[in-house]
Design goal:
Blueprint lengths: L2 H7 L8 H13 L4 H20 L26 H12 L10 H14 L3 H5 L6 E2 L5 E5 L5 E5 L2 H11 L22 H15 L10 H13 L4 H8 L4 H12 L18
Antiparallel strand pairs: 1-2, 2-3
Helix pairs in contact: 2-3, 4-8, 5-7, 5-9, 9-11, 10-11
């Protein structure tokens, strides 16, 4: 039994209190979870809290006084090309002041985030075997709902990945592409710590929401600027609904991306 299993084994309905739920929601804020993510977590808690009294497992609903997190209705904000260039330069240069210690890995992460539009969880779940190198370079991505999609990538993206993988040993097709310095697979929580370091070093203002998501916005707006049809972008991003993707049409029309071609990261990577 793992340490997590043992901790979960000690949780009972006595712990299902408004104080504990408030602490859990506050922790999501501390971890940088977007309002929409926190709203989904609260909705799940509410669903359980309403079922438990009906099933006579609990007496009260501790979520009754909780307010929904306010979600932003604005357009997605990408990095400009100049900002993206500064971020790559910052990540390429180790600096103890910003705790940037693994530049080859960090540049590869930025390449995949901005050059393939992956979500943080998808990047962390990427395996060595998912980097396909036959007639067309592409990534095989496991997205939400266990759906698999294929994302074509520029050669410089794979070059950045390979430059990092050559620093590792004992790799198999199932090995995680991105790992911590100690060797464990990278997690989305790790990215919430890494991204602000790059932005601070690059003097780039942080965007609201999940730390790594602005790279995905940059990719998406770049694709639209380059003429990708919205239904094609839907497939590339792994969106379930077309209206989720369509917001990038508005962002591109408003000039929020300042990108001139798809996958703008490709021309900014070190040779």
């Amino acid at each position: 039994m793992s340490a997590l299993d043992r901790r979960l084994g000690r949780i009972s309905l006595d712990h299902w209190t408004d104080d504990n739920l408030a602490a859990a929601m506050a922790r999501l804020v501390d971890q940088g979870a977007a309002p929409a993510s926190r709203a989904r977590a609260l909705a799940a808690a509410r669903g359980f809290s309403r079922w438990a009294p009906r099933a006579r497992h609990h007496d009260t609903d501790p979520t009754i006084d909780f307010e929904n997190p306010k979600t932003r209705q604005g357009l997605p904000v990408a990095f400009t090309r100049a900002e993206l260039e500064r971020i790559v330069v910052a990540a390429s240069n180790p600096d103890p002041r910003y705790r940037i210690t693994n530049p080859t890995r960090d540049v590869a992460i930025i390449a995949v985030l901005a050059g393939a539009g992956l979500r943080a969880s998808e990047l962390c779940g990427l395996t060595v075997g998912a980097v396909v190198r036959d007639d067309q370079l592409r990534l095989r991505v496991h997205g939400k709902g266990k759906k698999v999609r294929v994302v074509p990538v520029a050669p410089s993206i794979v070059t950045a990945i390979d430059a990092y993988l050559t620093t590792r040993t004992g790799l198999t097709s199932t090995s995680a592409v991105f790992v911590r310095n100690a060797g464990q697979p990278l997690t989305p929580r790790d990215l919430t710590r890494l991204v602000p370091r790059w932005l601070e070093h690059a003097h780039v203002p942080p965007r609201e929401g999940e730390a790594a998501h602005a790279f995905r916005h940059t990719y998406a707006i770049g694709q639209i600027d380059n003429g990708t049809a919205v239904h094609e972008l839907q497939d590339l991003l792994g969106h379930a609904f077309l209206n989720t993707t369509a917001i990038y049409l508005r962002a591109s029309a408003d000039g929020l991306g300042h990108t001139a071609q798809a996958a703008p990261i490709a021309g900014l990577l070190p040779p």
